[in-house]
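Need residues for this backbone.
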């Protein structure tokens, strides 16, 4: 199953040089479809992370001194190289993460577009010029770089997520130290290789690999890191917030999700069915915006649910390198066990498992899990309340649209949501009453580059993507400028005359 490769030794990139760890430690990268070791990466020491941060700090002033247009030339070149290397990068992504090759190509395209999108902002990083309360004075609000950005990225989208963090950081004049997930470090390293090939000055972009407990902790607690941007679990986000509070670093956190998907009686059910399959099983359900729970109108449940089950049965599960495959393996054995834990909870609560519920029969290797649909009776069920992050979908029946919105909002998370209805009043109600950062009405994701990827409640802080992300990577500075010829005039005293 899937192609095999010789074990490749990758390095870290610190201050323009590729290095192995001085401590000699390495981390094995496993192909989740075959359980074979395909590569090793260094296990960085804390001192090596400090070296990377020092290099970024040293490089930052000269990088900031370039005009945004000069910086954008590097981003355009990186995008060009990604596009030229698309198929090879997609194969590496599939081998380390397990998603089907067509999804990997789609992700690589997104990585290139992220760099192009933010490169195009070179002439649009705008501040403000405001009138003063006093004559012959001006107020100017500038957007300046923060300095060193620490980037911590997940395993589910190891190429596009790091691109979405690096690109806005670089165009705004910051330098970056990035740490990829130990499960999927290769896509990030390959992207950094292309940045080096594009001529990015040394120290501007650095990659360190290793554990969150050592590498991640140094990034989060180092006083020279001005912004920490992380995509991961809400639990990890809480820990970062606590650790970064000592030096009050700025935070950009995209955390957990538990997206509701509401299908109402007046929806185009054929279209809703296709969308529901994609929204739940894209990337094997290992997606922040995946439809983690479904609320189906009781009037159409007996029509829609059997169709959803039959469509799920038709999904091709297997070799992620095959163009015929819809679902590959989960990223790791630990992640598969997590999904199996929720299936077991459904059994304990006597919920109805309609389809799936076990590992793939007859498959001896790979972290495969059958797509599983479970009819859940209680809103308080862990399957409804907790993020599963796998190919397991709980379904509940509802009688009233307002009730569906209320149940949707009953979550500590608030990233994405889906609603299928042709009624304009229900559409508008969903837009304003569903308290989630994204609302897909009669369509599915992924989010588009010009849209703000953000959320309510414990889903995080700030926004990824769109022009709003640039605000997260910049610091406002207000300048009060006096250009009078006679600075002793009375109006210079804001509280009136001195007499």
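Answer:
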């Amino acid at each position: 199953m899937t192609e095999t490769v010789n074990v490749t030794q990758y390095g870290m990139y610190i201050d323009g040089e590729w290095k192995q760890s001085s401590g000699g430690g390495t981390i094995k990268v496993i192909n989740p479809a075959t359980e074979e070791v395909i590569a090793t990466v260094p296990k960085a020491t804390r001192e090596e992370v400090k070296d990377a941060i020092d290099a970024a700090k040293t490089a930052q002033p000269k990088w900031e001194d370039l005009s945004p247009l000069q910086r954008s030339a590097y981003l355009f070149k990186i995008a060009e190289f990604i596009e030229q290397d698309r198929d090879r990068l997609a194969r590496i992504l599939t081998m380390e993460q397990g998603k089907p090759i067509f999804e990997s190509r789609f992700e690589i395209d997104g990585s290139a577009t992220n760099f192009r999108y933010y490169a195009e902002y070179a002439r649009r990083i705008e501040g403000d010029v405001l009138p003063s309360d006093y004559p012959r004075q001006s107020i100017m609000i500038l957007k300046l770089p923060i300095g060193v950005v620490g980037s911590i990225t997940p395993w589910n989208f190891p190429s596009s997520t790091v691109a979405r963090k690096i690109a806005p950081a670089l165009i705004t004049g910051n330098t970056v130290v990035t740490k990829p997930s130990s499960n999927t470090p290769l896509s990030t390293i390959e992207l950094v290789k292309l940045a080096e090939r594009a001529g990015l000055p040394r120290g501007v972009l650095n990659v360190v690999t290793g554990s969150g407990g050592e590498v991640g902790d140094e990034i989060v607690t180092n006083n020279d890191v001005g912004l920490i941007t992380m995509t991961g679990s809400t639990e990890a986000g809480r820990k970062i917030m606590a650790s970064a509070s000592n030096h009050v670093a700025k935070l950009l956190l995209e955390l957990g999700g538990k997206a509701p998907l509401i299908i109402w009686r007046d929806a185009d059910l054929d279209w809703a069915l296709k969308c529901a399959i994609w929204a739940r099983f894209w990337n094997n359900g290992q997606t922040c915006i995946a439809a983690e729970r479904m609320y189906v109108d009781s009037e159409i449940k007996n029509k829609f649910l059997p169709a959803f089950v039959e469509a799920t049965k038709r999904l091709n599960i297997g070799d992620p390198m095959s163009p015929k495959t819809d679902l590959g393996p989960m990223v790791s054995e630990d992640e598969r066990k997590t999904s199996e834990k929720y299936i077991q909870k459904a059994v304990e609560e006597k919920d109805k498992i309609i389809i799936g519920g076990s590992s793939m029969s007859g498959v001896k290797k790979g972290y495969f899990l059958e797509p599983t649909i479970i009819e859940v009776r209680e809103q308080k069920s862990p399957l409804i309340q907790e993020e599963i992050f796998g190919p397991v979908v709980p379904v509940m029946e509802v009688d009233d649209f307002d009730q569906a919105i209320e149940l949707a909002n009953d979550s500590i998370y608030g990233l994405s949501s889906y609603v299928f209805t042709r009624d304009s009043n229900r559409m508008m109600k969903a837009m304003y009453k569903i308290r989630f950062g994204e609302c897909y009405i009669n369509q599915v994701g992924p989010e588009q580059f010009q849209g703000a990827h953000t959320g309510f409640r414990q889903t995080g802080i700030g926004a990824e993507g769109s022009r709003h992300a640039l605000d997260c990577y910049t610091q406002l500075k207000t300048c009060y400028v006096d250009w009078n010829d006679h600075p002793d005039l009375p109006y210079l005293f804001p509280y009136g005359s001195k007499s």
